[in-house]
Amino acid sequence: MLRLLLSMLAVFAGQSLQAGPGQHAVASAHPLATAAAQEVLAAGGNAFDAAVAVTAALGVVEPQGSGLGGGGFFLVHRADDGRSVMVDARETAPAAAHPDLYLDADGEVIPGLSLDGPLAAAIPGMPAALGHLAANYGRLSLAKNLEPAIRLAEEGFPVDATFLQMAGFRLHALRDGADAARVFLREGDLPEEGEAIVQPELAATLRRLADRGPAGFYEGEIAQRLVEGVRAAGGIWALEDLANYELVEREPVVLHYCGARVVSASPPSSGGIAIGQMLHILAAGGNRYGDDEVDRVHLLVEAMRRAYRDRALYLGDPDHVDIPVERLLSMEYASGLRADIDPERATPSTELPLDPDAVPGPVPPAIDSESEQTTHFSVMDAEGNRVAATITLNYPFGSAFMPPGTGVLLNNEMDDFATRPGEPNVYGLIGFEANAIRPHRRPLSSMSPTFVETPDRIAVLGTPGGSRIITMVLHGILAIVEGAGASEVVQARRFHHQYLPDRIEYETAALGSRVQLELARRGHALSPQIRPFGNMQVVIWDRQRDRLEAASDPRGNGSAAVFTPVPAR
Ligand code: GLY
Predict the structure, then answer these.
(1) Over the stretch 487-531, which tens digit does the pLDDT of each residue have?
(2) Which of 37-74 are b and which e, b meaning 16 or more Cβ less than 10 Å from the residue's Cβ?
(3) Residue with CA closest to ligand 1 atom 3
(4) Could you list the active site residues?
(5) % pLDDT > 90, the chain
(6) Cβ atoms within 10 A of the Cβ of 165, count?
(7) Residue 392 Cα, ligand 1 centroid: separation in angstroms?
(8) Which of 70, 71, 221, 313 is 20 to 30 A from 463, comparing alpha carbons?
(9) CB-ligand 1 contact for 510 (6 Å cutoff)
(10) pLDDT band, very low/low/confident/very high, at 567 (cuts 50, 70, 90)
(11) Which atom number of ligand 1 is nearest to the Cα of residue 446?
(12) How far is the C-alpha of 286 from the C-alpha of 273, rounded, in Å?
């Protein structure tokens, strides 16, 4: 009777309420974080409690990817009322930030200033997100959900190969900061694989968060230590920056493609809009992009090129800039872009108009693929609540700066702003006024946590990978729409184009030799990459087959689990 009433209500609300999958599923970039989710789910928590536990645990055991000193986007869906929302915990520029922050007296960008040390750090959103999710969506207390992370910080976690690779890559920056070096290095050098990293100060900060909620971070003793540490080392944070940090709940971008409903990140992420533009360009040709692999890659690349051009021109913090969302996502606009694509010839990016005032920097640097950090997890609980979260410190180990006595590694998200109009950031992405540095602004992001909902299946997905996140998620969406399972989605080979640099970057196995030759003949520059792209985490609930599956990208060291809730005694 109750079920009948619910389904009548659902029809009335224009939604389709479903019973949940009856099992829990989680996929994250670290087995200890996946175990943290399992622990709180087994304790009676829901997907949102699991999200808090995974986020906090990842910040301890994968410090190169995310942490309390960073931010991110949590795409959440509540099963009981069918509501999807994006919890925007993106960092904000401190009040003293200004457009010339990283320029010398001649207006030249000072190398490294937006990447290393406290001047690179924006005001973190992560502690606010943990408190918000627990208080508004979870079933357990924040303190309960933080228990696994506190334990991992106190008892230590074993160093793995990825940690060593990233710490090696950021060794100079880590050596520059006394506290970060003390925690993550051994007398200035890398620890041995398997050695334990113990973080008592981070444990104490997490305990304060557990006891007092976000105020335990943004106010009082921790805030004092953060600001003093930042200012003593040349940064510009003030206590008010922390006290005034505001998390925002935003409507996600909702798209329709080939019978699927795609829900993705809205600005200040560029993900949802760029994905929407690319899907619409494909749809503008009746969803036909050729039976031939070359035609398919060519069209996808041309769609990517155009979406990233618009990213550079129009996207930024929606609370500070007017973004022409409706136009960018209209089929009319997409049809115009599609009509402009020559099926036989690559469009040089220089032929795609930029604003006359928008002059891109001279030669965008190659993306340093070692710098692909950030992290993602996907979770769904037995009732069908779900979270896709992409969280970050930006570069590996963020700014590599840890204010003394906090255990908190700070982000370097300020580099995601256009440090100067047309100046490429560390991922080679350019931006202009829409993403210029201003006090309190959120820097434009590429993080794209996403849901794909088809009549039969619901998928939760996302990946780290800097500027390539958006195109990797696009590949994931297309695979899911075509019926791929979770393992297939995470294993699929990936290619990418981002307008500038004007070249197709691809995993070596992603394009066969005939495809490469033909793409080159059409005028594409090809750039094979030895290092793999991304670290995708996917959960798929197949309602038709009553099957729940989870997969963690074989490119990373993560783990996925599907398990049945233990009935309460
Ligand atoms: N820091 C990378 C991003 O937000 O896209």
Answers:
(1) 999 999 999 999 999 999 999 999 999 999 999 999 999 999 999
(2) bbbbbeeebbbbbbbbbbbbbbbbbbbbbbbbbbbbbb
(3) 445
(4) 374
(5) 89
(6) 15
(7) 7
(8) 313
(9) no
(10) confident
(11) 5
(12) 20
